[in-house]
Amino acid sequence: MRSAGERALDYLFLLPALIFLGVFILYPLAANVGFSFSEFTLGSAEKTFVGLDNYRQLIADPIVWTALTNNVLYALVSVLFQVFIAHILAATVLVVLPSRLAVAARSFFFLPVLLSMTVVAILFTFIFDASDGLLNGLLQAVGLGQLAHPWLGDTTTAIFAVISVSQWQSIGYTMLLFIVSMQNIPTELYEAAALDGAKLLRQYVSITLPQTREMIFVVMVLTVSGAFTVFAEPYILTGGGPGNASQVLATYMYRVGFFQNEMGYASALATLIFVITLVLSVAQATLFRTGKE
Amino acid sequence: MINRRNFLLGTAAVAVAGGVAACSSTSGGSTATTGAGATTELTLFHRWPMEPKNGYFESLVKKFTAANPGISVKIDKVINDTYKDKVRVSVGSPQAPDVFFSWSGSFAASLVATGNVLELDDILTKDAAFKSQFVANQLPPFQVGGKQVGLPIGMIGKFWFFNKKLFADQGVTPPQTWQELLDAAAKFKAAGILPIAYGSKDQWTIAHYVGTLNQRILDPAVTKKDYEPKTGEFTDPGYVDALQRFADLLPYMTPTPNAVAHQQARDGFIAGKAAMMYLEGAEYDYFKGSSLEWGTFNFPSMPGGKGDQSQLTGAPEGFMIAKNSKHPEEAVKLFKFLLSEAMGVEWTNQTGELTAIKGGVDRSSAPDSVKEMANNIAASSEMTPWLDNALDQRLVSTYLSETQLLLGGQKTPTDVMQAVQATAKKVRG
């Protein structure tokens, strides 16, 4: 039987984490929701209570809808690449490729993850450059010059150019997560399946997929919430432009808060981002019914 | 048991203390120059982390601390757009820098709104010699509510720069009127030369064109009323006309300017690939080491324009003092040193910027064409402020993003002004 003192000590151990969570996560979250009902500017401490005005403005603001659409596009493309394609890639690297080539392939796909996002984004501004960019140069070199395009400077292509950079950078990371989880699948399962005459594809569908369900869920949550909080890529590559064509919620929030100096409205946008990611995480947790395994 | 518990308690305390310490450390690049036996530390916050200006401030601080034992100066610096965000937050905070950079106009006003900007009128009345050393027309842009809140370090004026060789080859003389500009541009285009280098990926470049065109075309009384947040409507057809004129230049500009950064366009001009470019005076500093022979001319006059057709666009930039500085006397000392006549000439010598000290550029080692620019600015009765310094930031945001779409061919001038009018309505409140 443990003494009351020892149990009290248990709570003491929790204290640092609780203080940390409280100060850096819970308090700012609550404060932000409070701010979203007021109007104030950077640097001045005066806040005017405006009730739901900021949320009314949010619903009527066409740029919010552009940004939201862009975030949804981001999420869809990211799930396709960073969950489905990365999963297939992981299985390919692990099972199909001979082991030496597999190691090389793994490093090859993982390399971009090690680069700073800022560096990657600046690098891609050179690749996408309209006049001297590598991509347009390549297209011209192979006789597809008519496809050359001001990728980042055109409202129709800017957001897709930005999204593609994120895929290039992140696919290696999720692939590695899948590889780790695949390596934890007991080999007996594959041996038994092979004895029953199951070929590689069948093994993938019947063993690998269900056995890595937990990881697929984790990656799905990471990718989707990442897609709704993405900032660095569009901020550096296009700054949300041309116009507001490649604006996402986070860059628009930044612009409203720090450029337009409307901190109250920016807080409302931050709350919107939080609610969206929270709802999506809860929805996915329920759908996959994981967390208890 | 006691010992173990004490140890654990200690560990927990260290962990908490570590967390607190971690959050109190400041971020951002900073360097401290400590004088011998320093007792007072001042913070100087500016927006030039790159050379040559970064080095200029470091050597300035060294000179200052050598002359003022007992004071040390910590320099903080963050680049342009980030500076705008950071200075607005930090000036209003208890950790405000003592002396800091500011643009003039609405930006200065936004810093004054934090309540931590020192009014300089007393200092200037006491030290008339200090006040009189500045070019007179550079002081009003730093007045907010009738009070002098900052002083200029440099004058910035916008000029058309042209490539002398290309102009001579095509027999073109610097255009004085809008029609002459279009004719010259057409001539270059026909000869296979890019007439005007321009990149609008950075939205502020749009503000420079539109601000000048508005000034030339519209009645000053109209822009005065519209640029005021409480009364702005932007219904005058002159605004649509100004945007149409801007769009008329597009066929002669760098193709798909929305995909081109300002610096990239400028590099093209320096490399001799374009005949003209609308640039800030001090940007000539980037031409050093190139073989470019250049000249400047003022923005052409507009047919039927109601504004002063020879006015220059530009605004000074300078420094301010924090009202709540813990060391007010030392801060004023640093401020006066920073803006002294000797340092002003040094500023032009080392960085190419045009000092706001009377006759300062003339005494510097700058080329004659630069001295001419400085004299043009000093002689100008009034300057047109940058559009993005003159308007409420919400209007700036709409005006620039929508005009960027005009340049991309997705919007018409009327569409743009409708969006601006809608935002103006919101800003009027």
TrEMBL record, chain A:
Main localization (coarse): membrane
UniProt keyword terms in alphabetical order: Cell membrane, Membrane, Transmembrane, Transmembrane helix, Transport
Annotated Pfam families: BPD_transp_1
Matches recorded under InterPro entries: ABC_transporter_permease, MetI-like, MetI-like_sf
Domain of life: Bacteria
ABC transmembrane type-1 domain sequence ranges: 68-284
Gene3D superfamilies listed in its UniProt record: MetI-like (1.10.3720.10)
Cellular compartment(s): Cell membrane
Parts of the chain that traverse the membrane: 12-30, 72-97, 109-128, 158-180, 216-237, 263-288
One Gene Ontology cellular component: plasma membrane
Membrane topology annotation: Multi-pass membrane protein
One Gene Ontology term from the biological process aspect of the record: transmembrane transport
Family, as annotated: Belongs to the binding-protein-dependent transport system permease family.
Protein's name according to its UniProt entry: Fructose-amino acid permease
Organism per entry: Micropruina glycogenica
TrEMBL record, chain B:
Annotated Pfam families: SBP_bac_1
Record keywords: Lipoprotein, Signal, Transport
UniProt signal peptide: 1-22
KW Lipoprotein (keyword) present: yes
Entry-linked InterPro entries: Bact_solute-bd_prot1, SBP, TAT_signal
Top-rank taxon: Bacteria
Stated family: Belongs to the bacterial solute-binding protein 1 family.
Protein name as catalogued: Fructose amino acid-binding lipoprotein
Organism: Micropruina glycogenica
Primary gene name: frlO
